[in-house]
Amino acid sequence: MTISSPGLLPTETLLDSLVHISNEVVSIEKLPFVQMRNVSSMIRRIKLLSSLFEEIQEAETPLPPSSTLCFTELLSVITRGKVLIQEIKDASTLWGLIQLEFISNQFYVLVKEMGRALDILPLRLLNITADIREQVDLLHKQAKRAELTIDPRELQRREMLLEVMANNMMQNKKNKGYMDFGKMEELLSSIGLRTISDYDIEISKLEIEAQNQAGTGWINSGHHTCPKSGQRLIHTALIPNYALKSLVQQWCYDNNVPLNEPNSSVSEEKSNKKNSNDGAIDHISANKAGADAVKMTAEFLVGKLATGSADTQRQAAYELRLLAKTGMDNRRIIAEVGAIPFLVTLLGSHDPRIQEHAVTAMFNLSIYDNNKVLLMSAGAVDKIVQVLEQGRTMEARENAAATIFSLSMLDDCKVQIGARPRAVPALVLLLKEGTPIGKRDAATALFNLAVYNPNKSIIVSSGAVDVLIELLMDDKASITDDALSVLALLLGCSQGLKEIRNSRELVPLLIDLLRFGSVKGKENSITLLLGLCKEETEVVARRLLANPRSVPSLQSLAAHGSLRARRKADALLRLLNRCCSQPHHSL
């Protein structure tokens, strides 16, 4: 599948640009002494991607549309990464220490954007080796999990710098002219400033930075908080920070280190670079171009869904699934270009992968609330229920349950889904037969549906209570909290109360969960016990008091549980005390 549009570079040009810019980044020498960890990590990521780009370039096979979109985004990320690294190299090292959090956050944003771009990369459709595929997949996962990284050693160096500056200012006020030269030399050496030439260049850079900070800085861009403390500025009039420059100059003077005047050529070069970067990225235009590219890609893929062969439909559905995986704008645009009716039709496909990709794409689209209404209007529910019952793969059935869960977030959808006679039984069936993930999807969907009272009796009559209680005893299922949440809701209807009350296994299980369950599990366990006790006080009280663990567990919960759990544990203990104090009760 190939795609061409004025909004995207031609494939050959795009790959040439990616290989070129990646090699430029990878070949960067003499890494800066600040942000070394973030710079090294960014170069390592780009080096791995360059192997991907080169392998695809050598294969000379057409690219799927979503990969073209992904590579366009990656070109933007890598370009901005190169500019950021070069700016750090060209800028004052001491000022870089002061700006640690601000610059680190720029790297963090780039890594997260890289992860979002890789969300829509159809790795399995690319003609690449298994080794590269595994490495890119690992890079994708790491980028999605990435956190803001600030090197503790650089934080220590900044604290040392601020301490030296503060002490120097204090001594100057006292006219003592003293400075801790040992600390200053140690600090300068630790960030690569060791020679007269290094000091001269650093002072020149600080001179330029002071002039820049005397201008508008980051303030006119809407930043009105201190990058270090996070506190809101009480005014936006910046005073040039000559303290760093004077600190270095004083150290050089006191140590008889000669200094040249700031090099005009350095200033001119820095100024030229700054001017060349002005307006390099127009974020509004970039966002509009990105939306246009997504729309064009989605329109192309929907066309393939409508008229393509089975192989083409399979690939198009897979790429739409990836495209809808990230970003509310993507989900909105895909629906606007008319994808939903074609995806609904493909739910009935005899091809297992087409069906799986179609239902997963619908789940991703349903995360955007407006699309929930569109899916319901397109008659998607009956088709989704059919996949839930008889899907050709377990993943398709599980994602059908997840789609019902997502749709049932809206109250109107709870009503409509509950009214489908096969919907709830199909969820209960998956609750029995599914993998742990499928069981959880089914349980959460049932919970959403049970919030609407008329659905509770439907869920009970479908046999959900016995299955949910069985799952409480199944450690492998790992959905204890979800099962308890549904049971606690079903307690609110007469049929549910009757079914739950008839279980002989439930009360001992709930007593154990009072001791060993999660916070949420304990709350739902005490809710169920209290509800049962209020309905059949003597019978349930007898069963509770017959278990030596029940009262100590309740007392512990009343003392140390959550507010909700404490309140209900107190109520149940009072109820048990009243039962014990009445002589006509044979407890």
Number of strands: 0
Overall 3D shape: flat
Structural class: mainly alpha
Rg over C-alpha atoms, rounded to the nearest angstrom: 32 Å
GO molecular function: ubiquitin protein ligase activity
InterPro entries: ARM-like, ARM-type_fold, ARM_PUB, Armadillo, PUB12-19-like_N, Ubox_domain, Znf_RING/FYVE/PHD
Protein name: RING-type E3 ubiquitin transferase
Enzyme class: transferase
Walkthrough of the structure:
- This protein is mainly α and 587 residues long.
- Among the domains are: 11-150, no CATH class; 151-171 and 179-212 and 236-258, no CATH class; 504-586, no CATH class.
- It is built from 31 helices and no strands.
- Mean pLDDT is 82; it is low at 1-6, 234-243 and 261-285.
Can I get a quick summary?
The protein has 587 residues and is mainly alpha-helical. The protein contains 31 helices and no strands.
Give a quick set of tags describing it.
flat; transferase; 587 residues; mainly alpha; ubl conjugation pathway
Please specify the SSE layout and strand pairing:
Layout: H1 11-26, H2 36-59, H3 65-90, H4 93-98, H5 100-119, H6 130-145, H7 152-173, H8 181-190, H9 196-214, H10 243-254, H11 264-277, H12 283-307, H13 310-323, H14 328-336, H15 339-346, H16 352-366, H17 369-377, H18 380-390, H19 394-407, H20 411-419, H21 423-433, H22 436-450, H23 453-461, H24 464-472, H25 480-490, H26 494-501, H27 506-516, H28 519-535, H29 537-545, H30 550-560, H31 563-581
Helix pairs in contact: 1-2, 1-3, 2-6, 3-5, 3-12, 5-6, 7-8, 9-10, 12-13, 12-14, 12-15, 13-16, 15-16, 16-19, 18-19, 18-21, 19-22, 21-22, 22-25, 23-26, 24-25, 25-28, 27-28, 27-30, 28-29, 28-31, 30-31
